């Protein structure tokens, strides 16, 4: 059994094209039905904002791995100088059940989240034929920073402007030196929102605050899931989800659209629809795309499997006996 931590993952490197490719392979495997992924339960106790989530999954095909992520989310941890999330994964051999690895997976979780967004951005950029593109990010924690890195990789020299906002402020030294020349720290979320073509929410907000309808022809990567008032997104027709049953609960923006405005599963489309049927192309270029990823255990297992195999290949990690 191997132990990997964040330092091991960093040593193995972040290759966005490969990680996005792992996510696309997983999407295609899920579409074939070669997976098992129960709805993830939420363990709550103490303060209502605190939760620990169990995320088990098996993914077949090229991935051929099973495991579970156990992720604790404590939104007020930042006040104590602690990370918001603490995450651990266990991987098992799907043939005999043997434990293969235990992984400190907070970085893996961020890489999974950003790679899923990257798959959407990749397809969106290809369909819309993006040229000069402006990126806006609200929430400059680990997920926001990884999204900036991912977008820079996918868009390359087509990324011409980055607008950042965080309620706690943003230190210049937290911005990649290569991205600083095109990066602006804004005074509020509205400036980033109004002046972006790709807009990403990566917050831990406990109150919805986005009350403006988005500009046309915009990709909204709603990573934090609880930032938009229903009135601001009620007219968007192109609503993309990773899994309706997962995302239409837990007070997400999708659940609020469902409860308040009658949004149904049939009115949305999935990552499988996007990858296999090119559904983004079904919408006029003036239509904004609203992506809501609850986060699927299958993607975590697939990304963890990729890093475990890289670690085995390169001799990285600690053998536990």
Give the H and E element order. EHHEEEEEEHEHEEHEEHEHHEHEHE
Name the helicity range: 25-40%
Q: By helix and strand content, what is the structural category?
A: alpha/beta
Quote the beta fraction.
15-25%
Largest sheet: 8 strands, mixed
Please work out how many helical segments DSSP would assign: 10
| Low confidence ranges | none
User: Termini distance?
Assistant: 7 Å
Count all strands and give the number.
Answer: 16
Radius of gyration in whole Å, from Cα?
19 Å
Kindly state the mean pLDDT as a whole number? 96
Could you walk me through the main structural features you see in this protein, from its secondary elements to its overall organization?
By secondary structure, this protein is an alpha/beta fold. The chain contains ten helices and 16 strands. The strands form two sheets. Strands 1, 2, 3, 4, 5, 6, 7 and 16 form an eight-stranded mixed β-sheet that branches. A hairpin with a 5-residue loop joins strand 4 and strand 5 (65-73). The longest helix is centred in the middle third of the chain and has 23 residues, at 106-128. The relative contact order is 0.18. The mean pLDDT is 96.
């Amino acid at each position: 059994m191997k132990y990997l931590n964040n330092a091991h993952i960093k040593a193995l490197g972040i290759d966005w094209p490969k990680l996005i490719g792992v996510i696309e392979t997983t999407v295609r495997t899920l579409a074939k039905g070669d997976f098992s992924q129960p709805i993830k339960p939420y363990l709550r106790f103490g303060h209502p904002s605190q939760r620990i989530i169990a995320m088990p999954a098996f993914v077949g095909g090229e991935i051929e791995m099973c495991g579970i992520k156990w992720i604790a989310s404590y939104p007020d941890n930042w006040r104590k100088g602690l990370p918001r999330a603490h995450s651990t994964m266990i991987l098992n051999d799907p043939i005999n059940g043997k434990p293969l690895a235990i992984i400190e997976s907070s970085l893996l979780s961020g890489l999974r989240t950003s790679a899923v967004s990257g798959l959407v951005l990749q397809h969106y950029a290809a369909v819309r034929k993006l040229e000069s593109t402006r990126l806006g990010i609200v929430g400059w924690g680990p997920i926001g920073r990884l999204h900036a890195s991912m977008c820079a990789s996918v868009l390359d020299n087509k990324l011409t402007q980055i607008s950042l906002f965080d309620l706690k402020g943003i230190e210049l030294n937290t911005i990649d030196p290569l991205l600083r020349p095109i990066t602006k720290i804004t005074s509020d979320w509205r400036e980033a929102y109004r002046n972006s073509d790709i807009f990403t929410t990566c917050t831990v907000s406990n109150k919805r605050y986005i009350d403006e309808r988005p500009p046309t022809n915009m990709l909204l990567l709603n990573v934090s899931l609880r930032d938009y008032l229903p009135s601001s997104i009620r007219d968007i027709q192109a609503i993309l989800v990773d899994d309706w049953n997962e995302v239409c609960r837990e007070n997400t923006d999708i659940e609020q659209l469902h409860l308040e405005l009658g949004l149904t599963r049939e009115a949305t489309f999935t990552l499988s629809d996007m990858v296999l049927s090119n559904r983004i192309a079904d919408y006029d270029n003036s239509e904004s795309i609203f992506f809501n990823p609850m986060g699927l255990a299958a993607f975590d297992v697939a990304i963890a499997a990729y890093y475990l195999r890289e670690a085995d290949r390169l001799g990285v990690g600690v053998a536990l006996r």
